[in-house]
Amino acid sequence: xxxxxxxxxxxxxxxxxxxxxxxxxxxxxxxxxxxxxxxxxxxxxxxxxxxxxxxxxxxxxxxxxxxxxxxxxxxxxxxxxxxxxxxxxxxxxxxxxxxxxxxxxxxxxxxxxxxxxxxxxxxxxxxxxxxxxxxxxxxxxxxxxxxxxxxxxxxxxxxxxxxxxxxxxxxxxxxxxxxxxxxxxxxxxxxxxxxxxxxxxxxxxxxxxxxxxxxxxxxxxxxxxxxxxxxxxxxxxxxxxxxxxxxxxxxxxxxxxxxxxxxxxxxxxxxxxxxxxxxxxxxxxxxxxxxxxxxxxxxxxxxxxxxxxxxxxxxxxxxxxxxxxxxxxxxxxxxxxxxxxxxxxxxxxxxxxxxxxxxxxxxxxxxxxxxxxxxxxxxxxxxxxxxxxxxxxxxxxxxxxxxxxxxxxxxxxxxxxxxxxxxxxxxxxxxxxxxxxxxxxxxxxxxxxxxxxxxxxxxxxxxxxxxxxxxxxxxxxxxxxxxxxxxxxxxxxxxxx
Length: 497
Ligand code: UD1
Ligand code: CA
Fold this sequence. Notes:
Blueprint: H1 2-9, E1 20-26, E2 43-44, E3 47-48, H2 51-59, E4 65-69, H3 73-84, E5 90-93, H4 100-108, E6 117-122, H5 130-143, E7 146-152, E8 161-164, E9 170-174, H6 181-184, E10 188-197, H7 198-206, H8 221-228, E11 232-236, H9 239-242, H10 248-266, E12 271-272, E13 279-280, E14 285-286, E15 291-292, E16 297-299, E17 303-304, E18 309-310, E19 315-317, E20 320-321, E21 326-327, E22 332-334, E23 336-338, E24 343-344, E25 349-350, E26 354-356, E27 361-373, E28 378-390, E29 395-396, E30 401-403, E31 413-415, E32 420-421, E33 426-428, E34 431-433, E35 438-439, E36 444-445, E37 454-455, H11 467-477
Parallel strand pairs: 1-4, 1-6, 4-5, 7-11, 12-15, 13-16, 14-17, 15-18, 16-19, 17-20, 18-21, 19-22, 20-23, 21-24, 22-25, 23-26, 24-27, 25-27, 26-27, 27-28, 28-29, 28-31, 29-32, 30-33, 31-34, 32-35, 33-36, 35-37
Antiparallel strand pairs: 2-3, 6-10, 7-10, 8-9
């Protein structure tokens, strides 16, 4: 790694490396997506397409990173700021899409004084690897010329073809619609990714002409110019990396490729029972010795600690799971924290602001929201805990509900250490249950319960002896009339229930 990095920074020529900037071409609409949303905002594994080249450029240390935007410019810019921070990406507006050459010219605007190598990426080519781009930039640095990424594909339809001379040197790129019959048989294609010196690109894009089948300014035309001046070299790469997204089928196919890549990386130290059904988004981190069941989705900025077991059907979004925790089948958690060695589910729903301490147990059909539970506390069955702070070692009985909303505002419940909440209780907030207090089953608590006290709100139990026989006798004397609308007559009222 360090050997490689130092070779990179020396530019392979023993001199100090020229700085690297990046241009991302993303002004197009993406007509073939048939969508109201511009193509580069469609998500691939939860991340908008445009963010893939941005992250690659960042990994390569490119600065500045300029995105050429046109269609839905404001929306794309907003997403860039939200995901990468204000100022991470400079936006250049291409109001009218006059071709990739024109887009590059527009993008070079903010780079007018930049002296170095410019890496040009497309907003719709997300599967590139950083190693590939490093090799491309290294090539441009080593030769001082232009380097273009190419792939050999079985069906080159739609791509620009790489035309080489008899000695095998790159001569030019010809677009499908401008190609001769002979050129169309070439199956080495242009991936649309380039690295070249900024001053060359400034000059070459200034001279482009739209005399071609599409009447556009083609960036591809700068390759012939480079071949005639500073030199043009191809860096060939596996076609799997260079496929662009033009329609929703390609988007789905790329997602499968990316998913396989991400899963393969985590399988170095985590077990996936069925990787083909497991979705791990790019921002997720998975610790050592984690076990993941079938149909699990780990999204956003989820972090899974060491030794965690996640069973089938679990969906975690922006959730932090502490070491050794166990998440049983079909739990959903969003913006939640699950403490070490906690046990969750099956069928639990942890909503934003849930913060569970170590060894907490949350059982089936329990919903939590803005709920902090201390070490070892338990809510095992059929419970809603919202806007609540629960101390350590609290037992929340089945069917407990924090009544946190009065139709106007949310208010808080506090349950202190060691308290015991009997089943089927309602805690009407704002209310505080004291330390080691006991709430008897079926209570409706509307006032604070002192430490150590029993709170009981139910009516006394009465017994009426012989009542069952009295009711039976009454109904034997007067059978109820059968409802007239019903075709089937019940044979006896006792069987109706
Ligand atoms: C381009 C290449 C082609 C290559 C292919 C690889 C040209 C002329 N052709 O064709 O050789 O094989 O990519 O995928 O470059 N864009 C703008 N402004 C514009 C036009 C395009 O920002 O005025 C952006 C698009 O949003 C897209 C990228 O540039 O992200 C590529 O444009 P696209 O129209 O998809 O080019 P292709 O026809 O695929
Ligand atoms: Ca394209």
